[in-house]
Amino acid sequence: MVFTPKYRFQILEAMVKSLIEYDIQLISVWKGVQIQGMNIQKDHIHLVCSIPPKVSISEFMGILKGKLAIKLFKTYPTLKQKPYWGNHFWFRGYFVSTVGLDEDMIKRLVHDKSIN
């Protein structure tokens, strides 16, 4: 999965990055999702995860992005000012692809991106 802040602003660093990383873990445990790889860049997030059949991908992404935005706006109220215009922190879409035989390759790619 890959998702980005609105307008791909390079804001996912320092304390914002730490808060997002921690909350992704909490939300994933709550929904029964196993995070197998995570990489937070300044302007996007990569996740490799295993989602149980009872949770749809769109449901998980909606909850994840919604809860993260609420927490970020409560913790950092200045994010509600321009250029974010209100309560919209994330770009409205996301990219998802299923992984089969290439799972190890995808995990290595996500891990290698965190080194760069």
List the helices and strands and how they pair.
Blueprint: E1 2-3, H1 14-31, E2 34-40, E3 45-50, H2 57-75, H3 103-115
Antiparallel strand pairs: 1-3, 2-3
Helix pairs in contact: 1-2
Describe the structure.
- There is one protein chain.
- The chain is of the alpha+beta class.
- It has one domain (2-115): Alpha-Beta Plaits.
- The protein is 43% helix and 13% strand.
- The protein contains three helices and three strands, in the order βαββαα.
- The chain has helices at 14-31, 57-75, 103-115; strands spanning 2-3, 34-40, 45-50.
- Strands 1-3-2 form a three-stranded antiparallel β-sheet, sandwiched between helices.
- A hairpin with a 4-residue loop joins strand 2 (34-40) and strand 3 (45-50).
- Helix 1 (14-31) crosses helix 2.
- The chain is globular and about 40 Å long.
- The model has no long low-confidence stretch (mean pLDDT 88).
Provide tags for this entry.
single chain, 116 residues, alpha+beta, Alpha-Beta Plaits, 3-stranded antiparallel sheet, 3 strands, transposase activity
SS element count, helices = 3
- Beta strands, count: 3
CATH class: Alpha Beta
CATH superfamily: Transposase IS200-like
User: How many independent structural domains?
Assistant: 1
Q: Which segments are poorly predicted (pLDDT under 50) over 5 or more consecutive residues? A: none
The major sheet is characterized as: 3 strands, antiparallel
What CATH architecture label applies? 2-Layer Sandwich
Radius of gyration: 14 Å
> Could you please say which CATH topology applies here?
Alpha-Beta Plaits
What is the N-to-C order of secondary-structure elements (H for helix, E for strand)?
EHEEHH
Shape verdict? globular
Distance between the termini: 19 Å
What oligomeric assembly is this protein in? single chain
Structural class: alpha+beta
* Strand order of the biggest β-sheet: 1-3-2
Helix percentage range: 40-55%
The chain-level mean pLDDT equals: 88
Strand content: 5-15%
Domain Transposase IS200-like: 2-113
InterPro entries: Transposase_17 (IPR002686), Transposase_17_sf (IPR036515)
Organism: Myroides odoratimimus
Pfam families: Y1_Tnp (PF01797)
